[in-house]
Amino acid sequence: MATCFRLRSCLALHLPRTPPSRVLRPRADYPVGRIRGYARGPAGLSSALLRTDGFVGGSWLSAAATFPVHDPASGAELGLVADCGVPEARAAVRAAYEAFCSWRGVSAKERSSLLRKWYDLMIQNKDDLAKIITAESGKPLKEAQGEILYSANFLEWFSEEARRVYGDIIYTPAKEKRGLVLKQPLGVAAVITPWNFPSAMITRKVGAALAAGCTVVVKPAEDTPFSALALAALADQAGIPPGVYNVIPCSQKKAKEVGEALCTDPLVSKISFTGSTATGKVLLHHAANSVKRVSMELGGHAPFIVFDSANVDQAVAGAMASKFRNSGQTCVCSNRFLVQRGIHDSFVKKFAEAIKTNLHVGNGFEERTTQGPLINEKAVEKVEKHVSDAISKGATVVTGGKRHQVGKNFFEPTLLSNVTRDMLCSQEETFGPVAPVINR
Question: Which of 148, 227, 242, 420 is 20 to 30 A from 248, comparing alpha carbons?
Fold first, then answer.
């Protein structure tokens, strides 16, 4: 949460404030289209939470165009979502900036209370929110339910931390002087989130920003906008003031220009991004011209190391937990397994047995499923490319190795042995259910 503050002396100038009681509404020059209804979606999803429009300045606003969102498991269309562009992004930033002028003056106690109400509403609607995650990301329902709980817990945590925004007294070289440090909110934070944790990555960032007194503009991933919009509906119910939390969904086609607009807008003071390293570099470049504060959580290439002295059963249990969560689609999933020569064969054998016994591929809504689909066709093609490259260079497929018969976006949990460091799976993040083992 500290990154949402700026430190200044008590003599620094304040920005002009509007009265806390002021009700902020979209300006007349906002690019507002007609207001659409809700997404129909498949049976079982909450129609009250499955929204299709952007959320700007406390209002549901459509855009000139829409883009489809599909269930990665079945390919079914979940709905057509507003395809916001640069004008909508600028409008959302203006709404957030105007709201900041009053939100920064709201007492810590009141901000805490509003965040707590938002948390309470998430818990009340946890089952519906989890179903939305499973529908749009394919994540097994049990994993989605777990995500909603810890997603809500971020709001609970920051609702309590909002009351503990303390300053400091610093001793100076001069005996008769003291330095007084006050913490002040930065301003508008642009939050760009990934599809693999479509709820938790939002509350983790937004909860901190709102507790600190900042306002936010959220650009969710194009594959999973419904979770961000459902959170907007609950934030509105909780009484979060208009303009404090804004959501601008957009298609992949417009993502680049919207990201650039957010990073270069002079009214934006902070950028928070979770996603690929390549995209992070582009956003850093855009943010550099105005020297914006930036926080980034980028791609990884995490090794899982097993020494000869390891307990094989415990090592296999750890490997299963660290590799196959969300079908290998998390930034903390182990991407390569470095196993010492003396324990290698035993580890590979037991790892293969665990994969075959414990992992069940299927639709995320099926109770038995532990491995859902990959997010889209492009993700499957990347996994196929890594496996094909490894095989062509001498790797052995111990189990899996191809698309699953359940559907085009499903891939078999795969274990590769005889992997070498020149293979793609040893050099790049696979982001899929592939465990390459390197004999060390």
Answer: 148
Rounded Cα distance, 414 and 135, in Å: 24
Task: Provide the H-helix boundaries in 16-170.
Answer: 86-103, 108-124, 126-137, 141-161
User: How confident is the model at residue 127, as a pLDDT?
Assistant: 97
Predicted pLDDT of residue 4: 61
Gap between the Cα atoms of 44 and 66, Å rounded: 23
Is 143 a residue of the active site? no
Classify residue 113 as exposed, middle or buried by CB count within 10 Å of its CB (0-12, 13-18, 19+).
middle
Residue 110 tokens, joined: 């009141």
Q: What is the rounded average pLDDT of the residues 351-369?
A: 97
pLDDT value of residue 29: 41
pLDDT grade, residue 20 (50/70/90)? very low
- Mean residue pLDDT of the chain comes to 92
256-288 pLDDT, tens digit per residue, is: 999 999 999 999 999 999 999 999 999 999 999
Which one, of 269, 273, 136, 177, lies nearest residue 215 by Cα? 269
Q: Which of 77, 297, 366, 384 is catalytic?
A: 297
- Do 191 and 206 meet the contact criterion of CB atoms below 8 Å apart? yes
Residues 399/320, Cβ–Cβ less than 8 Å: no
Q: For residue 24, what are the β-bridge partners?
A: none
* From 331, 412, 425, 429, the catalytic residue: 331
